[in-house]
Amino acid sequence: MNTVTSKDGTTIAFDRSGQGPALILVGGAIQHRAIDPSTARLAELLSPSFTVYHYDRRGRGDSGDTAPYAVEREIEDIDALIQDAGGTASLFGMSSGAVLAIEAAAHGLAVSNLAMYEPPFIVDDSRPPLPDDYRQRLTELLAKGDQADAVELFMTEGVGVPAEAVAPMRGMPFWSGLEAVAHTLPYDAAIMGDTMSGSPLPAGRWAGVTIPALVVDGDASPAWARDAVAALVEALPGARRRSLEGQTHEVDPEILAPVLREFLAG
Fold this sequence. Notes:
Elements: E1 2-5, E2 11-18, E3 22-26, H1 37-46, E4 51-55, H2 71-84, E5 89-94, H3 96-106, E6 111-117, H4 134-143, H5 147-159, H6 163-166, H7 175-180, H8 185-192, E7 213-218, H9 223-235, E8 240-244, H10 253-265
Helix pairs in contact: 1-10, 2-3, 4-5, 4-8
């Protein structure tokens, strides 16, 4: 394990592997190294071609946390990793981590290429929008120490998993790992902002992000997720799209890795 110190003094932990141009993997909600073997496998598959940074976002795993939270602090975390990598890096963002990666590029960080998988925007009526009070309710549950209900709220209203499917999950061994990072769920809600409201993406919000960009989805994912990818491709100048046959949001790293390698090497 390696660490860097972010601008506000927070320690950010990461694994570094491989050789070649730097690539930073930005996880989505709840993801971190201890409970995310899929991203660890992706790092392993990419390490023959890249120096891969697989890090714990602040508040998770071995990374520290400093109040108050702001999206800008997470952007500074990425910048600290970029500086460790020599001053420039490509980013791959998964789910809400894709949106964080876009924001990092929009803030002028030295990002050479930007790859994303299924940022969870809701841009039309193909699924219910996130309620306006979603982040507030998360925060209130966590303030009461109710991590389990916070995770359930995220799963049902944030992800869209039916409540009857979430109920039995609460008794499964992995659930405690989700509760352990439940306090970071409002962080991802802040990153997403109002982009899950069912409205089109804000016009011109990322117009300044002109670096090479690839937005990937699975063709077996629901319509709302694929509509989000199409909307982002329209919003990012020069971005292109790639759909992976038979894949969903739980993408197979064995299928994703060659797509990222081809894009980043080009």
